[in-house]
Amino acid sequence: MTRGVKDNGVLVDAFVVTAVCFGWFILLSLHAVSAGFPTHPFTDTSLLGILITELALATAALGYLYVRGHDLASLVPRPSRNGTLAGIGLLVAGYLASWVVTWPFPADSPSAQPVEELLAEARISLLPVLGVSLVNGVYEEVFLLGHLQKTLEPWGASFALGSALLVRVLYHLYQGPAGAVSVLGLGLVFGLFYMRTKQLWPLVFAHFLADVYGFAT
């Protein structure tokens, strides 16, 4: 699709792919909110389940896009030295933005940050952490920014950025208010970077580092 030209069929495709890739995770996140944020610590088995689920849903989404005639090559992150360095800087900027927006939340409030309990009680090994961090980084940034945000840009930059941010926050609600707001800050930095550069690898690498750091600390 030529940038700036609206295509309602492509808009439907964006909705379908977003529902396939993130609908289940959004439902799980909303359930966690309604249940009062029950804590189920991460384990190697649960990480493997996430990895398998994301790979299966990604295969379904890419198959749909292929049948619909979309350019799948544009969704492939292309690693590079400069992109890797940009990813490190992007992560620092994202963490700074997250710190700013979560500053009002009390650090010692479990109800505000149940994600801290999830990570503190995690029983996980290095290999599953690296595997799920890489797959998750590719999965989220490719389908959220490389597809959804980019597809929606003809309807306005603010609409595209806001839609991707909304989906990102919805499936991270299980992390609690502070966690979700932190994701909002990070996602805003990521979305603005992609809107300006259309580069996926720095985002994927930054996301990978963020996930590994989150599990390791």
> Between the first and last Cα atoms, what is the distance in angstroms?
43 Å
Number of strands: 0
Query: In percent, how helical is the residue content?
Result: over 70%
Mean pLDDT: 90
The count of helical stretches stands at 8
- Uncertain runs: none
Strand proportion, as a percent range, falls in under 5%
Biggest sheet character = none
What is the succession of H and E elements? HHHHHHHH
Q: Any idea how many domains?
A: 1
Shape: globular
Radius of gyration: 17 Å
Which structural class do the helices and strands define? mainly alpha
Written overview of the protein:
This protein has 217 residues and is mainly alpha-helical. The chain has one domain (8-216). It has eight helices and no strands. The chain has helices at 8-34, 44-67, 81-102, 114-120, 126-152, 157-170, 176-197, 201-216. α2 packs parallel to α5 (126-152), α3 (81-102) crosses α8 (201-216) and α6 runs antiparallel to α7 (176-197). The model has no long low-confidence stretch (mean pLDDT 90).
